[in-house]
Amino acid sequence: MARILICDDQEMMRDSLAAILAREGHEVVATGDGPAAVSRLSTGRFDLLITDLKMPRMTGLELLSEAKRLRADMPVVLMTAFATVQTAVEAMKLGAYDYIQKPFDGEEIKLLVDRTLEHNRLIRENATLRSMAEASLAPRPLVGDGDLMREVKRKIDLVGRSTATVLIRGESGTGKEVVARAIHAASDRRDKPFLAVNCAALSENLLESELFGHEKGAFTGADKLRRGRFELADGGTLLLDEISEIAPALQAKLLRVLQESMFERVGSSVSQQIDVRVVATTNRDLETEVENGKFRQDLFYRLNVVPIDLPPLRHRPEDIGDLCRHFLSLAARRCGQAYRHIEPEALRLLTRYAWPGNVRELQNIVERAMVLETEPGLVRASTIEPWLKPAKAPSTAAVDNLAGKPLADIEKQVILTTLRRFQGHRVKTAGALGIGVRTLGMKIKKWKEEGEESLVGVEAEVD
Ligand SMILES: Nc1ncnc2c1ncn2[C@@H]1O[C@H](COP(=O)(O)OP(=O)(O)OP(=O)(O)O)[C@@H](O)[C@H]1O
Ligand SMILES: [Mg+2]
Q1: Which residue among 167, 171, 177, 330 is best mutated to probe the pocket of ligand 1, counting the most ligand atoms within 8 A of its Cβ?
Q2: Which of 93, 139, 249, 267 could form a disulfide with 215 if both were Cys (CB 3.0 to 4.6 A apart)?
């Protein structure tokens, strides 16, 4: 399964080639001239370009050099008539991978395409291996090129340059930690430490000394001085995982470090200054935790300087193919095998599934397939189908709590929560709820007249 771009001015040629490759399970885009191909290349990723040499507007050679400039790693195969074979040979010196002489039959081009893709995959794998060996702590790549992930990547690049605190929100397994590492790697702190603390895994006391360290004798069992994560991460990045789980007393201390970059070790009165970029993650709705008095509002605002929302995998099925290939080659490398192929039908199944466990679940399934497939390196639809649990109705717990309440109350609750989520923005709220802005306005007006208190905070931003 690869994404292949075809460029040929002859419609018949282009269509039949596209049909042959599509039957092989590839995703094919066919263009009729060089400029159209260039525009495709500049907006999307392709694994291979197959282009004719003689075309009006832009020759195959010109397209080749544009392609090398835009996508240096993408192999280019040229199609040529007998008379231009010499040019094709020249083209290979300019970086084309191979050429094929017209006319050719389906089998010939299929073979060439397979060989080119395989060769390129090996080169890429080699390059990855080499770079992994060079930096054993190499950042894990953030795979996914769909619109939603591109937006996430854009934000990572933007915040990378700053020291702003980042709050990464997303369901379990969506890749929050991968994003946190990517932020570190995108910043000029990348050569300094990246440390992580899971706030849910430790008791309050242990977490406190994990974060801030302790002096010798600070409490029973503190037989040595211990430096905390903030101190150890000085100059670098500290990931506070599952921040919603942090106890109230610690929330206050954390707020202070974030505001003043100062802290004391447990049992010490000496303040220390540090320079740490904090990235926090949560899979809970912190706004609700604030409303319920479980999370300090001031800390929430301090953390929420730059929020990054990681969409659940079911909202970005376009990334599933790339993620599969990524996990397959990771797994293959680990067991010293080569991965060959995901059946198109298997990919279709994966794309349709709802992924309650998000990317982590996808990774598990792909790795399991790698181990259990009788033919190594092949992922078959029949193998994975039983592993894809039928989707449950989303968050039944939340619906259970609402069942039996007057609909008018539920409606009000939903509208007010949505309004808060969009910081009082009426157009966005109405859009999300699928109602008219005027209708929303009338409801808000009515609730205000009835003295609805929770509208007070929102009101300022609304009017
Ligand atoms: N975009 C991605 N590209 C590559 N690998 C990913 C991506 N997203 C997630 N993963 C992989 O999926 C697994 C889960 O990701 P991660 O641990 O970052 O999720 P999380 O959101 O922190 O989950 P949790 O809330 O359960 O801690 C990891 O093995 C990670 O490497
Ligand atoms: Mg995590």
Answers
A1: 177
A2: 267
Q: Which residues contact 41 (CB under 8 A, 6 or more apart)?
A: 5, 49, 66, 67, 70, 71, 74
Here the tokens at position 209 are 């000394």
What are the tens digits of pLDDT across the range 303-332? 999 899 999 999 999 999 999 999 988 887
- Ligand 2 centroid, distance to 190 Cα (angstroms): 20
Residue 160, Cα to own-chain centre: how many angstroms?
16
Instruction: Evaluate if residue 397 carries a pLDDT over 80.
Output: no
Q: What whole-number distance in Å separates Cα of residue 399 and Cα of residue 403?
A: 6
Does 167 have pLDDT greater than 90? yes
Q: Which residue's CA is minimally distant from atom 8 of ligand 1?
A: 175
Q: Which residues pair with 306 in a beta bridge?
A: 166
Give the domain 313-387 fold.
Helicase, Ruva Protein; domain 3 (1.10.8)
- Reported as a pLDDT band with limits 50, 70 and 90, residue 391 is low
3-131 CATH choice from 3.40.50.2300, 1.10.10.10, 3.40.1260.10, 3.60.20.30: 3.40.50.2300
* Tokens (6 digits) for 144: 């996914």
Hey, what are 315's tokens? 């909202």
Q: Do domains 3-131 and 147-309 have the same CATH topology?
A: yes
Architecture of domain 147-309: 3-Layer(aba) Sandwich (3.40)
Residue 341's beta-bridge partner residues? 378
> So where are the chain's domains?
3-131, 147-309, 313-387, 402-462
Residue 207 Cα to chain centre, angstroms: 29
Whether residue 235 contacts residue 278, with contact meaning beta carbons closer than 8 Å, is answered with no
